[in-house]
Request: fold
Amino acid sequence: MSDRAVGALAAALVAAIFGSAYVATALQLRGFTPLGGALWRSGIASIILVLLSSWMVARHRKAHAATRSSPPPMVGRLARLLILGLLGGFIFIVGMNLAVSRVGATVTAFVAGLYAILAALFAPAFLPETLDWRAVVGLAVAMLGTILLAELGPTGDPLGLVAAGAAAVSFGLFLVLIRRWSAAIQVGPVGISLATALASTAGLVILIAVMEPNAALPFSASASVVLATIWLAFVTTTGPLLTTVALRRVEASLAASLLLLNPITATALAALLLNEPPSPTQIFGGLLVLLGMAVATDPIGVVRRWREAARKESSDPHTIDIGSSRRMQ
Reply:
């Protein structure tokens, strides 16, 4: 399988599992407060990733010693990893949990899923890219759909929308900065996932100690709560890992197009597992959000460019793979 195909598959998988996380969060919150649930998913993921990282370092220590190059300054690397951890971990997870607790899984999935558009808007400020008019138009259409969705939130609480919006902004910046800092931090996908999990766990421990000392204790330990927590730990472990794999192998436009699977997955699972079928107005609002995301990410153009690249590669065996040539430096 080519690097480009691996990247596309990783982007599709991360979109689907992130979509499932909104519904799993709703199930987990039947036994935890929003902060307590976030701490458990981050804490379990941190333990898994520490063990995985330790095993990888021990296994490849000799290889690293033989090929070791001068790394960038440690302080700069740690600062960048901390920022990535806060954006893709702590802020995103806390915002998502608060939003799900207030406006439900479906609305949160559509609003937080706007990070696909926001990443396109943020990119020109951090990367050598120009602002595409599609991103501006797409955001305007998506915001109109969000207004319709907001009127139908289970509690009508505007703070839930603010939390979901904060999660979208945070993860949009996370996606852009991964691409910008890939070479500077010299950390692989597992390292990025570990940074997000550790930042979330540390931040939540401090926040809970100050605001809700008993929040880490569950008030229900039903099978659904336990299974949801395990699944969320899996999402926290693999989500940033797959995101990094995707963004290092395919251009951002393709990865963003596949993120359309995020709210679609959440809506289907919410109807199936939470008995939250969307109303006609909610469906219309959700379609507007998806339309806005489609305008911003131009999936038709992405497919066309994919086919053109495939034709060139098949006709010229010496053609360099576009996915590889566009990896982050």
